[in-house]
Design goal:
- The complex is a heterodimer.
- Chain A is mainly α.
- Chain A has one domain.
- Chain A has helices at about 15-20, 25-40, 45-75, 95-115, 125-140, 145-165, 170-205, 210-220, 225-245, 250-260, 260-290, 295-320, 325-350, 355-390, 400-405, 405-420, 425-440, 445-470, 485-500, 505-520, and strands spanning about 5, 90.
- In chain A, helix 13 runs parallel beside helix 17, helix 14 (about 355-390) runs antiparallel to helix 19 (about 485-500) and helix 16 (about 405-420) runs parallel beside helix 19.
- In chain A, about 60% of the residues are buried.
- Mean pLDDT of chain A is about 85; it is low at about 1-10, about 75-85 and about 520-540.
- Chain B is mostly helical.
- Chain B has a single domain (about 5-90), classed as Helix Hairpins (Orthogonal Bundle), CATH 1.10.287.
- Chain B is about 75% helix and about 0% strand.
- Chain B has helices spanning about 5-25, 30-55, 60-90.
- In chain B, helix 1 (about 5-25) runs antiparallel to helix 2 (about 30-55) and helix 2 packs antiparallel against helix 3 (about 60-90).
- The N and C termini of chain B lie far apart (about 60 Å).
- Classes of the chains: A mainly alpha, B mainly alpha.
- At the A-B interface, helix 6, helix 7 and helix 10 of A face helix 1, helix 2 and helix 3 of B.
């Protein structure tokens, strides 16, 4: 059941109330943003007040998202327009599933920030406006297949992130991190927009489904081949920047190390997974557009391209994490590696002979959900160590098992889950991606399986370094003091990782439900190409 | 004499794009890099409007994107200048090579 919103030329017969309802989770976030703007005037700037307003907004948005999920999954929604692909926004199971994950995660990050902010915190409204703004951008990123909307959503997610990284104005490292993030971001966004303009020129449409058909035609026929490839590479570079895939990963460790720890946690999960789902959607639309036998051959290089990018990304992330002494930077490289694993799932359904598209997609969605808990837990513990000791160096973790057992145990669980060891949820996330790859049963699939397994072994080493530091070494430092609420948060994450492993089957069923319909109503299959198809560039010169 | 056609616009835009990329890669000053970004964004704008003009009557999508693009560029510049001022306050320079505390 895919719903299309905002079809501009046919207001008649469109149920506006229903469209607003379908879009309500994101609208609620925007309203929360306005409420946060108004709060300082009415009730004051205290961090606790603003935090409470934001939490209420997130809860309201979550409830609405659950209701929308019921509406979208239950069927009974008719398509709005005869040209489904021309809508700017779409609400389907995938986008709602991601928005639910995003809202849960945002609740966790808000809570973490709330714990960590001092009573004298003056900048709460500004911080939450930025956080909510980037959340809206990420929510939009997953619910569109229109090139203009993709560009706007990526920018809406990026601009507040730059400011959040440099949020503490007195912090030299934060300033440097935000400058690097901004420059990489601005360059890749500009290149992406240039690619979008070329794609628009080639196909005469902004809808990805139509663009995909034109691209595949020109790839198959060799007509405008070079310019199509350049345009696609440009578009991909903008998305790869958000994923921090090789070779667009340079900003990631610097930005993550310089930012406040809550911001690092937010960016490491939310912005990466939003971009991954966006890439997955684009890949799906592209593959659905391929029906001609001669065009199917075009997908194999594409699948190999994404597969190799994934392999390099995760190998590079894991090797670079080796020699890190800062826990934040180590987790930043680990997040690059995990982006690589998740990219592998995308290679599955780009693959030409794949009937396992849905398997790859549900593996990706599950992985994102699990990854959220792993990272929230790990960053939560790092945050509490930083608050108490003032340093995120691995040395400040020494003897944590004695100094704060209630933090060390969940940390060990989260780290083992990040490695992908049973009996924690990280194992099933990784396992399903490997199964989906193995079912491809060809050289690409096995290449990626071997890469992923070897990388898991490599990553064991540097995650174990933290565990060893916490458990085996001890330099007799005094016990750590930490907020009880934060301790509860990381323990809940650890328990969730156990529980997800225990209830792996229901988890699989749920994620399959959320991804099932996408492949039935794939956009390009139902697309009605514009009445006046675009003319090729040469024939329109006057 | 030949009329000005789509190709002319596309060539201008491509040259502008290359100038922008060149500026980004050679400038060490953050403001200089951001000017390069502006050049690339403007080349995109030329592309979009030219496609609309020459690809048949009644096309508006490209022009709408171009307007959004201008807004995007303005927002990005405002933020970028803010961040540059912050960097200048902290490091007394906006040279990107001076920003080298974070590495490893």
């Amino acid at each position: 059941m895919t719903m299309w919103l905002a079809q501009s030329n046919a207001w008649a017969g469109i149920d506006v109330t229903r469209h607003l309802f379908l879009f309500s989770p994101m609208l609620t976030l925007v309203c929360t943003m306005l409420a946060v703007v108004a709060c300082p005037i009415i009730v004051g700037r205290s961090a606790k007040t603003i935090g409470a307003v934001v939490v209420m907004g997130i809860i309201a948005s979550f409830i609405l998202a659950v209701r929308v999920a019921g509406e979208v999954a239950g069927g009974g929604i008719s398509g709005l327009s005869t040209q489904p692909a021309s809508g700017m926004l779409l609400v389907d199971n995938l986008s709602i599933a991601f928005q639910l994950i995003l809202l849960i995660f945002m609740g966790g990050v808000t809570y973490l920030w709330w714990m960590g902010s001092s009573d004298s915190e003056e900048n709460a409204p500004e911080f939450f406006i930025l956080l909510l703004g980037s959340a809206v951008g990420m929510g939009l990123m997953v619910s569109t297949s229109n090139l203009l909307m993709i560009a706007l959503a990526i920018e809406t997610a990026s601009l507040p992130s730059y400011a959040m990284v440099g949020f503490d104005k007195r912090d030299r490292r934060g300033a440097e991190a935000s400058l690097k993030y901004l420059i990489f971001g601005a360059i890749s966004a500009a290149i992406m927009l240039y690619g979008i303009s070329l794609l628009y020129g080639l196909s005469g449409s902004l809808s990805v489904a139509i663009v995909a058909q034109h691209c595949i035609q020109s790839l198959a026929s060799g007509h405008n081949l070079v310019i199509t490839l350049v345009a696609l590479m440009c578009l991909l570079s903008g998305i790869a920047f958000k994923i921090s895939a090789f070779p667009f990963h340079f900003w990631c460790p610097d930005a993550f190390e310089g930012a406040k720890i809550e911001v690092t946690a937010w960016l490491s999960v939310a912005s990466k997974s939003a971009a991954l789902i966006l890439l997955a959607r684009l890949a799906m639309v592209f593959c659905a557009g391929v029906s001609a036998p001669e065009a199917i051959g075009m997908l194999s290089p594409l699948a190999w391209g994404i597969g190799i990018m994934a392999a390099i990304t995760c190998t590079l992330g894991n090797f670079a994490a080796y020699k890190q002494t800062s826990a934040k930077r180590l987790l930043a490289y680990s997040s690059i590696a995990h982006a690589g694993y998740m990219l592998m799932a995308i290679a599955v359904f780009v693959h030409p002979h794949s009937d396992h598209g849905q398997e790859g997609m549900s593996a990706l969605l599950t992985y994102i959900a699990i990854y959220m808990f792993m990272n929230l837990g790990a960053f939560g513990v790092v945050a509490m160590v930083v608050w108490d000791t003032g340093s995120d160096n691995l040395a400040s973790f020494t003897g944590l098992l004695r100094r704060a057992p209630l933090l060390a145990v969940p940390m060990i669980i989260c780290l083992m889950s990040l490695v992908g060891l049973p009996p924690f949820a990280g194992f099933i996330g990784k396992w399903w991606i490997l199964v989906a790859l193995g079912r491809l049963n060809d050289s690409l699939g096995w290449f990626l399986v071997i890469t992923a397994v070897v990388n898991t072994l490599i990553s064991l080493y540097y995650y174990m370094r933290i565990v060893v530091q916490m458990s085996l070494r001890d330099d007799g430092q005094p016990a750590l003091s930490f907020p009880l609420g934060g301790m509860a948060l990381v323990n809940i994450c650890a328990i969730a990782l156990f529980a997800m492993f225990g209830f792996a089957q229901p988890l699989k069923t749920t994620s399959e439900q959320f991804t099932r319909n996408i492949f039935d109503t794939t956009m390009a299959k139902t697309v009605v190409v514009d009445a006046a198809p675009a003319q090729p560039i040469e024939s329109v010169q006057r | 004499m030949e009329h000005i056609g789509l190709t002319h616009y596309l060539v201008v835009a491509a040259v502008l794009f290359c100038c922008g990329i060149f500026t980004m890669t050679t400038k060490r000053n953050a403001i200089g890099i951001l000017i390069g970004v502006e050049l690339v964004l403007n080349s995109t704008g030329i592309n979009l409007v030219a496609f609309d003009r020459y690809m048949g009557p009644g096309r508006l999508d490209g022009q709408v994107v171009a307007i959004f693009l201008i807004v995007l560029a303005a927002a990005e510049t405002a933020l970028a200048v803010g961040i540059c001022i912050n960097v200048y306050k902290n490091l007394s320079t906006v040279d990107v090579d001076a920003a080298s505390q974070l590495r490893g």
